[in-house]
Design a protein that fits this description.
2 copies of one chain form a homodimer. The first copy, chain A, is an alpha+beta fold. Chain A is built from 8 helices and 11 strands. In chain A, the strands form 2 sheets. In chain A, strands 1, 2, 3, 4, 5, 6 and 7 form a 7-stranded mixed β-sheet that branches. In chain A, strands 9-10-8-11 form a 4-stranded antiparallel β-sheet, covered by helices on one side. The interface of A and B includes residues 35, 262, 265, 280 and 291 of A.
């Protein structure tokens, strides 16, 4: 069974009825599992997280789009979080047996659906049509209010839909990205500089692993410091390699790892890789997990 | 979602049509996933492996029993493997969110179903009604041919069904056991005595871990030796503890672990425990695995 995840953000965080209706629209698609809905009043924004087979995720996302484009009018929208559209950002995330190419195909299919409805669309991250559009923050610069001017700039011609301002819908960013793993390692010291030096060393920016973002955090309550990380591609920069590198760097200061935290959801494959490494079970596969057979 | 597994053995390994019919009967129960069917001509015996929610596994096992009791006549059975009945042995195995007590309830319900059909039943392992009946080998002593006499012995009065010989059906052993994990560790030496000393030390019989059975195996082709193990309760004697103990014992002889093998299927929880240990992620749970949400 192929599993794709989608985590769309919509520009409405106060109207509970609208958000519940959107959740129902997603759930109504057979084979879709809605994992989470969270709304933020100050951001005036809601996030949905659901998964299923790629075609079904596409269908559910279209249902969500239909509802959101009908109900949300961006011309009156206020909120603390940067935003450009009613359906603001739609990342598709391959979870199981879905290649990036397949996910990009789904993203493009969804983008052209939105375009045909008169919504300008920018593709970002792995779905980006050009390197300048990879980064969501670049695309979102100036937000909704900048769109009337931005859409006239040939450099910002949309990837789908009309190159003209749609006052009610705004613009939607549609992307594909790898599942992100939030992984924090707590060090048995109160010296923040140790965590800071390790974070700088392990992150891509500082010359470290390509798919690691890291900062040092002081956990005063616990009398510890933390290397707080996002692993943006667990298959190329696996959890265990990060763990062992942090451990060995810490040991250089005479500091040991007190504990660690995997925050939020992770794909099964990332865990199997951990077991494969530490048990030296080189041939161990996901299919050997009994429960995985029920996903087939 | 609760998941129970069942791995019945039937006394027919040659009649392909009968075995295919039995597989169909199991598959016909909605919500049941048939993982494997394997037949052995010399043993004249077939093994089915399937899983699903407990009540559905019970239903599928009844369907299997109906067919097997109708089609197999033990009075003419020949085969190399020890056996007592047409439906020879029926172990129920808790995989996910099923307690031993729940599994025992299912086993008892199935046993009484068989008993009502006139088949004498012995409960074994965790479903055993007394310590003398825990061990399947003890129950099976003398095999089918010994049943006419054995069933008259008050010490071997069946747990369900009549205390009289059923020539066509024989006797069925119904049990509950924990999922067994086959785990082999390969050592980078040709000295079998190293593996042998480690196997003797780590297994329950030799004073080692309660839920470990272990032997030493010579892997001549690979120029290595192996500690070959069955872990009979991964929650009480977890994989990582066995791994690290073998590693440290081997190091005492200057020998290192070359690789390891997890053979066959394992429950997800056993793997999560491995990650929890090696990543020191004390609070990591099965529910954090994205795919696990699809099992709910």
């Amino acid at each position: 069974m192929k599993i794709l995840m989608c985590v769309p953000n919509i520009s409405e965080g106060k109207d509970k009825k609208l958000v519940a209706g959107a959740a129902d629209a997603i759930r109504a698609v057979e084979g879709i599992k809605l994992l989470e809905v969270s709304s933020d009043r100050d951001h005036n924004r809601s996030v949905f997280s659901y998964l299923g087979e790629p075609e079904k995720v596409l269908a559910a996302t279209k249902k969500l789009a239909d509802l959101v484009l009908k109900e949300i009018d961006m011309s009156g929208h206020r909120g603390d979080h940067p935003r450009m559209g009613a359906l603001d950002v739609v990342p598709f995330i391959p979870v199981r047996q879905v290649s990036n190419d397949e996910a990009i195909e789904i993203a493009r299919s969804f983008g052209s659906y939105l375009g045909a409805k008169g919504v300008p669309v920018y593709y970002y991250e792995d779905a980006a049509a050009s390197p300048q559009r990879k980064n969501l923050a670049d695309i979102r610069k100036g937000q909704y209010e900048a769109l009337p001017v931005k859409l006239k700039d040939p450099a910002w011609a949309p990837d789908e839909g009309p190159a003209s301002f749609n006052a009610t819908a705004g613009v939607t960013a549609v992307g594909v990205r790898f599942p992100l793993i939030a992984f924090n390692i707590n060090l048995d010291t109160t010296d923040l500089s140790v965590a800071d030096r390790i974070a700088r060393g392990i992150r891509h920016l500082g010359g470290g692993y390509r798919h690691v973002r890291a900062i040092a955090v002081n956990l005063e309550d616990k009398g510890m410091v933390q290397v707080s990380m996002n692993l943006t591609n667990y298959s190329k920069t696996p959890i265990h390699r990060v763990m062992e590198t942090v451990r060995s760097e810490a040991a250089c200061y005479g500091v040991s790892v007190a504990s660690a935290e995997v925050v939020g959801p992770v794909p099964l494959e990332s865990l199997v890789a951990v077991a494969r490494f530490y048990l030296q079970a080189h041939d161990f596969t996901v299919d050997q997990i009994i429960e995985a057979n029920l996903l087939k």
